[in-house]
Amino acid sequence: MRICLCSTAFVLISSCLLGQDQWKGDGSSLLANCALAVRIFDGEKMSSADAVDAGTCMGYLWGVHEMDFAVQQWEENQKVKVMRHACVPSNASTAQIVRIVVKYLRDNPKDLNLPAAVLVTDAIRDAFPCK
Question: Is pTM, for the whole model, over 0.90?
Answer without folding.
Answer: no
